[in-house]
Design brief:
heterodimer; A: about 325 residues; alpha+beta; 13 helices; 12 strands; globular; B: about 260 residues; mainly alpha
């Protein structure tokens, strides 16, 4: 073989390695997405969210459960996190959050952000008889009423009352009693739903995001810019998260005008600068460093766009360090 | 076939069989050797670091700051100097071939050589370190691989232009190139102000968030450049330096 042929063979070999590597990776990636799509939740239950909700959120629990994040989530970690609430949910309703639930669509009603106007549409596979049985055995008082042909269970625990209804085999509604009834009306089509709100807020339909929250901002955000909380700076906001190769977080906000947007962007950059100074050799400081390294704040007219990447490894390290701290006497 | 393509093909054969290519294969294989060492350490339970972390460390600590610029420097800085030193340049210039075609072909060959050594090595390292984590992890991390391949190619074309220009106008392009890689780029990342904007490494690290060793300091001193601006900057550096090299070579008195 002469040198020209060797050159040709070497070229083919190098190109082949790259193409084969990319092809195999692409098959693994898109194959994984296919599996994820098959096991995905099928999108938010916006039909059950009444029109006028000030905040709408969605979590695709199927995607979370099949992500590398869930794999590293040990049982001991679950006990010390808000996820322990999911265990309590299973005890009182028989619903296994990580296996039975596909997605959660939560909504907070209009008004001043009072906590009593809230509801969650839980989508998944539920055993209606088991749910009724568990509710009947509940320690507190349980009342049953009917709204628009659907049973509504009012579970009283102390001073709080939580309503629960199952409008169809794959949906359970949980929330305050009045709001759950509104959700039932929206779901049946008797009253308009918030399906059009997302488009009106200008953030699209969040296709492909693992979780998102959108709505009008709470007072704490309004108070960031200006001299008081009465000085409104943001019209709407949206926070989205995608479980990709890393956890990709994005926060967007529509300011009332360009000046407010600039001021808010400056405040955010200031907060980030302070956060960068908080870095140290501790696991929490190292995580902060890696996250801060990826943060970008962009401004386009009245919209502020913040993007950041959180590597799974960093989350795992942080969880492990917390575990070690908790284990110390 | 166009004259530049003929020169590129011939030059590629010359570069492939030159003694320096053995050294460059060893250089490009260094991350692969480290990846294999990681696998051995993993097999003997000497480490618990996951493959994704190792891949990121190898890309940010070995490929981008060291292997890619060094390969480019060795090949691109010789596009003119090699033939001048070998005394073969006058023979090429007497051929029915424009100077632009000659240098374009040489620069294309040097870029192809560095690309052919860096990209396969990057792919092999990816599979060596990630295969123990399983098929799903290979798929989940694929966007990282694809992004790193693209950034490596963009960075290599920019380095190729810079070092080809150095090889065309300077008497000692290797020394100048080494200063650029280990002096200017290493320092500019940590200097306040806009100095880092005059490095290729800054734009490469901006395109690969989370995999830049100087990123923390860059973040403290100012924001990273956006992805689109980084791509445009690398393309501009590549275009300008290649064009300047061609212009300089057209006017250069070569002996």
């Amino acid at each position: 073989m002469n040198s020209s042929r060797w050159t040709f063979v070497s070229g083919i070999l190098a190109t082949g390695v790259v193409f084969a590597g990319v092809l195999v990776g692409a098959v693994a990636y898109f194959g994984g997405r296919g599996v994820s799509a098959q096991t995905g939740s099928g999108g938010p239950s916006l039909a059950f969210v009444p029109k006028g909700a000030s905040l709408i959120g969605y979590v695709d629990l199927k995607s979370v459960a099949s992500s590398p994040l869930a794999e590293s989530w040990s049982e001991s970690m679950r006990e010390r996190t808000p996820f322990s609430a999911l265990d309590e949910l299973e005890e009182s309703t028989g619903i296994d959050a990580m296996n039975d639930i596909d997605s959660l669509t939560l909504a907070i009603g209009p008004g001043t952000g009072k906590p009593e106007r809230w509801g969650i549409a839980v989508k998944g596979v539920f055993d209606r008889d088991r749910l009724v049985e568990k509710l009947s055995a509940h320690k507190g008082e349980v009342e049953t009423s009917t709204h628009a042909g659907t049973d509504v269970y009012l579970v009283r625990g102390g001073s709080e009352t939580t309503a629960m209804a199952q409008p169809d085999d794959s949906t359970v509604l949980i929330g305050d009693a009045a709001y759950v009834r509104e959700m039932l009306d929206s779901g049946s089509g008797a009253k308009p739903s918030a399906a059009g709100s997302l488009a009106a807020w200008g953030y699209g339909d969040f296709q492909g995001e693992t979780f998102w929250f959108a709505g009008t901002p709470p007072d704490v955000v309004q108070g960031l810019v200006g001299r008081g909380s009465g000085n409104e700076s943001l019209r709407t906001f949206a926070v989205t998260g995608r479980l990709d190769a890393d956890l990709l977080l994005r926060a967007r906000g529509q300011a009332v005008d360009s000046k407010k947007a600039q001021e808010l962007a400056d405040v955010l950059r200031g907060i980030m600068a302070l956060a960068r100074l908080q870095q140290d050799s501790s696991p929490r400081g190292a995580l902060l460093g890696r996250v801060m390294e990826s943060v970008s704040v962009e401004l386009a007219d009245q919209e502020i766009d913040v993007n950041l990447t959180v590597p799974y490894d960093s989350i795992r390290e942080l969880l492990e360090s917390q575990k070690k701290v908790a284990a110390q006497p | 076939m166009k004259p530049a393509a003929i020169v590129a093909r011939w030059s590629l054969g010359e570069l492939l069989w030159s003694p320096r290519t053995l050294a460059m294969i060893a250089l490009a294989g260094t991350p692969l050797g480290l990846a294999l060492a990681y696998r051995v350490a993993l097999a003997f339970r000497m480490t618990e670091t996951d493959g994704a972390g190792v891949f990121t460390a190898l890309v940010s600590g070995v490929f981008f700051p060291f292997v890619a610029p060094m390969l480019s420097l060795v090949y691109a800085s010789g596009v003119v100097r090699d033939d001048v030193e070998a005394g073969t340049m006058p023979y090429f210039l007497t051929r029915p071939l424009s100077r632009a075609s000659f240098l374009s072909g040489k620069m294309l060959a040097s870029f192809t050589m560095s690309l052919a050594l860096v990209l396969p090595s990057l792919v092999l390292v990816y599979y060596v370190v990630l295969s123990p984590s399983g098929w799903s992890e290979i798929g989940a991390r694929f966007p990282n691989l694809a992004r790193n391949l693209g950034v490596a190619a963009l960075g290599l074309v920019a380095y190729n232009g810079i070092f080809a220009l150095a090889g065309t106008v300077l008497k000692r392009p290797l020394l100048a190139g080494l200063f650029f890689i280990f002096g200017w780029q290493a320092v500019a990342t940590f200097v306040p102000g806009r100095a880092r904007l005059a490095t290729v490494a800054h734009y490469m690290s901006s395109l690969t968030p989370g995999s830049s060793s100087g990123g923390v300091f860059a973040g403290l001193l100012g924001e990273r450049t956006s992805a689109i601006a980084s791509i445009l900057a690398l393309a501009a550096i590549a275009g300008a330096t290649h064009a300047l090299a061609l212009a300089a070579f057209a006017r250069k008195e070569v002996r």
